[in-house]
Amino acid sequence: MNVVLAKTETGRALSDLFASAGGRLPGAGKVTEQRQRAFEAYERAGLPHRRIEEWKYTDLRVLMREVMPLAAAPDPAALKRAGKALKLHAIAGVRRLVLVDGMFAPALSETGDLEKGLGIRTLREVLATGELPAQLFVPDNADAMVALNSAMMTDGVVIEIADGAVLTRPLHIVHIATSASPSSMFTRSLFKVGKAASATLVESYIAADGAKAYQVHDSLIVSIGDGARLDHVRLIEDSREAFNISSSLVMLGAKAHFNTFGMTSGSNVSRYQAVIAFAGEGSRVETNGVNLLNGRQHADTTLFLDHAVPNCQSREIFRSVVDDRGHSVFQGRIVVRPKAQKTDAKMMTRALLLSDEAEADNKPELEIFADDVTCGHGATTGALDESLLFYLRARGLSEKEAQALLIQAFVGEAIESIASDALRELTAGAAQRWLAARG
Amino acid sequence: MPLLEVKNLQVRVEEREILHGLSLTVNKGEVHAIMGPNGSGKSTLSHVIAGKPGYEVTSGEILFEGEDLLAMPPDERSAKGVFLAFQYPVEIPGVATMTFLRTALNAQRKARGESEFSTPDFLKKVRAVAASLNIPQDMLRRGVNVGFSGGEKKRNEILQMALFEPSLCILDEMDSGLDIDALRVAADGVNALRSPDRAMVVITHYQRLLNYIVPDFVHVMSRGRVVKSGGKELALQLEAEGYAQFEDAA
Fold it and tell me: Do residue B94 and residue A409 have CB atoms under 8 angstroms apart?
C-alpha cells in the first residue's frame, strides 16, 4: 500500500528551495549526502512549534510561517550598501570578517597579515576542497532548525587558532543583509581554539539600508582546547522586520574558560540556542545576556549547559527589558550528569516589564544526577520600582531619564561580565542607543 | 511674595483624609520646624510638596514663588528649587553615586536653561562638599546608598542639598536612626546651608534635633492640621509637656 504524506504549502515550497538551491550549495560527495540527510530530517519535523517543549514559547509556525527563498549572491551594488552599513557598526582594533547575504565578502574583510597561529578560510572553499572537517556536521539533526542549517549552509568562516597562540586582536564576524526582497541566509562558522591559546570573537548581525524582512539562519561550532580561553560577544542589531535563528555548539576541554555574552536589541523574531558541553575537568563558563525589546519584538534565548565531567563551573546571568508588546523568552537548562561531581552551576534571570502588555517567560530547568554539587537558580519578573523612580524624579530627572538610569543599572550587571573593556563599552553604548531611541 | 504658601490643603490617601485643611507660609531666609506625633500628617505634607504619587489633593493649593506647585511634575519642582531630604533614602544598586549626582544636577540645570557642568568643575565641587560632610571618596563610587549606614544615607542627602543649591529644603525626620555624633555632623551640614536666599522646613518628632538646627518658627501638627505656631520656645514647651494637649485640641 502506498502512503502519501501530505505536505503543507510551506513544506512544498521548501522542497523546491532545496532542490533549486542544489547548484549553489558548495560541497560534493559526502557533504551532499549529509545535506540530503539533514534536509530530510528537517522535512520530517517541519518548522518547530509550541508542542515541542524546547520551542514552546517560540512557535515558528505562527511567528515565521515560512522559510524564505535563498538570498542571491551579493552583486557590487549590494556590497557597496553592505560597506556603508559596516561603517556604522565598525569596532576599532578588530579583524573584520564579513558575510553579506550569506556569502563571504573578501573586499570588506581583513584577511591579510594574519597573526602567527591564526588560520582563516571560508566554509565555501573548505567544502569545495572535498574536505569534511570533523566537527562540521557535529550538531545532530534532532533540532529542525539546525538540520535546516546543515542542509542549506552556503558559506561562513573556518577559523583555527594554533596551540599556544594568544591573539590580542579580536575577530569580528559581521553578518549583513542587503536584499530588499524577502530572502534567507544560511551560514555556518567553525571556530577552533587550540590548547593554551586565547582569542576574542565578536559576532554582529546587521542590515544594510533597505533590507527589511529577511531571515538569518546561522550556526557556530566552537571547540576550546585544554587550558584555552575564548571571550565571545554577539550583538543582534538586525532590521526590526527580520528573523534571526542562530545556534551555537560549544565544547570545552580541560581547564578551559569560555566567557560569552549576547545582546538582542534588533530583529522582529529571534532565537538563540546554545549547547555548551564540558568535556574536560576544571573548566569554567560564564554565559550572560541582555534582551532589550519593544514594539512587537520576540526574542528567545535557550541555553543548555551540559556538565558531563567533574569540577566544572558555570554561571548564567540574564536580564531582559521588555516594553510595549514585546516578548522575551529565557530557557536555561542545566544537566549535571552522574559523574559530574563538584559541579558548581548557577543561573539567575530577571525580567523588567515596562508595559502592561509586555511578556517575559523564564524557564529554568535543572536536572541533577550527581550528589556532590552546588547548583542554584533564580528568576524574577517585575516592573520598575516606584519608590526609586520617585527618588530620581525628586532629584530632577524626567520620567524617561529616571527609567533609563534604572534600566541601565538593571542590565549593567550582565554587561559588566564582558571581560574586554572595549567590548563592554561597545555593548553599553548599544544599550544606551536603545534607551535613547525610546525618546 | 512668600517662597512657599500652603493654603487650606486637604489630602487623601486611598479614600482616607490625612490632611484636613493645612496652611503654612514660609519666606526666604526662614527656618521652620514642624513637630507632631506619629500619624499627624508631617511626612504626608513633605511628600505632597515634593510631588510623590499616590496622594490626592481634594482641596486647597500650594504656591511656590507664586506658581502652582501641584501642577508641576516632581522633576520640574526640583529644577525650580524644591528639595526633599528623604526620611528613608532609597538604595539604587548599579547606579554609581557620582553618576547619579551628575545626572541629577545636569538635568536640573538643563531644565532651567543653564549649561551643564564640565567634568572637572563638577568633580571639584563634589569633592569639596563631600569632604566637609566627612563623606569618603569611595562612597561616591558605590551604588547610591548601597551598603550605606543610616548616618551615611542622611549625609548623602545633605551632600545633594549642598550640590543642588535648592531654595526650599524640606528635611523629613532627618534625625531618625542617627546617633548623637552622626546627628551633629548632619546638622552642621544643614546649618552651613542656611542663607537669606533659602528656606528650610525641618520635620521632626523630637525636640532634640532643634538643639542643633535652631528654627525661627515652630508649628505643631496634630491630626492633619497645624494646631499651634510659635517661636523656638514652643519646641521646649512640647518637650516638657508632650503632644497630648494638642491632640485634644485638634
Answer: yes
